[in-house]
User: What shape does this take?
Amino acid sequence: MKVRLGTTQIGLGRYLGMWGVIVVAFTWQTYMHDDLTGHTGDVVDYLRWNIIQWYTGAALAPLVVKLGEHYPILVPLRLAELWVPLFASIGMTGLALLIGAMVSTLF
Assistant: This one.
């Protein structure tokens, strides 16, 4: 199975692995930040939160790229043409929050 991002196709394993590297990096970053400020929790909680957050983004990324191809922001910039990308952005953010909330409630 392949994931299509624009004109690039990536194997599903590579795609998920790439996002896995991002999950580990941000888990380490947030854990170390909280450790330096003296508010550390369990590392598994940091990992779980980052998995939910970043893999939700990974699931929605192909749709975001497709929307960007279909509704590009062109130069010269016309404010009247920004409504569709603005509402698409708000909609994708809401969808990401909804999916993240549902998954975090389950786990």
User: Anything to note?
Assistant: The chain is about 75% helix and 5% strand. Strands lie at 2-5, 8-11. The first strand starts at residue 2 and ends at 5. The mean pLDDT is 91.
